[in-house]
Design brief:
This protein has 172 residues and is of the alpha+beta class. β2 and β3 form a beta hairpin. It binds zinc ion (ZN). Zinc ion (ZN) binds next to loops.
């Protein structure tokens, strides 16, 4: 490892420690030439295989390009976006492969984006999953509603059965 100060071609590792989640290792290094110290962070490389077959390093910034577009005009902050990109990377890294399909990156975006903003989610899904009709939107929305209901949020309509009696006042 080059010294970033004097470009000396070697450096000495003084200390290595894994980050809390074990996903990377930080090393304190010292240059034997100029004596200055610096830190390097080592993570497993993660490549994204594009549809063309070409690979490129995973990049949170690239993930954010599509997501940011979907969030235009929505109450979503840069912090929200940074957190989302971090979750996406963590999800992908937790799968343990060094190479993933670009498609899987999109998949990993859907869940955290849905939690963040449902409208942005629909926009993103419509591009990512190539919606081409109103029916595609309808089924995505139906799915969103079903999942929202499953989470027990504002159950709508549908009074419980056994609500009889309201008609009982009528003449018989
Ligand atoms: Zn140096």
């Amino acid at each position: 490892m080059h010294c970033p100060f004097c470009r000396h071609t070697d450096s000495r590792v003084m200390d290595s420690r894994a980050t809390d989640d074990g996903s990377s290792i930080r090393r304190r290094r010292q240059c034997p030439e100029c004596g200055r110290r610096f830190t390097t962070v080592e993570t497993a490389s993660l490549s994204v295989v594009k549809r063309s077959g070409a690979t490129e390093p995973f990049s949170r910034a690239k993930v954010l390009v599509g997501v940011r577009k979907a969030c235009q005009g929505r109450p979503v902050t840069e912090d929200d976006l940074a957190l989302l990109a971090q979750r996406v990377e963590e999800t992908i890294r937790s799968q343990g492969s060094a190479e993933i399909d670009a498609h899987e990156v999109g998949l990993a975006v859907l869940e955290p984006l849905r939690e963040l903003d449902e409208v942005a989610y629909l926009r993103f899904a419509s591009v990512y999953q190539a919606f081409d009709s109103l029916e595609d939107f309808e089924s995505a929305i139906t799915l969103l509603r079903a999942e929202r209901d499953a989470l027990g949020e504002e159950p709508q309509g549908r009074m419980p059965a056994g609500n009889a009696g309201s008609d009982a006042a009528g003449p018989s």
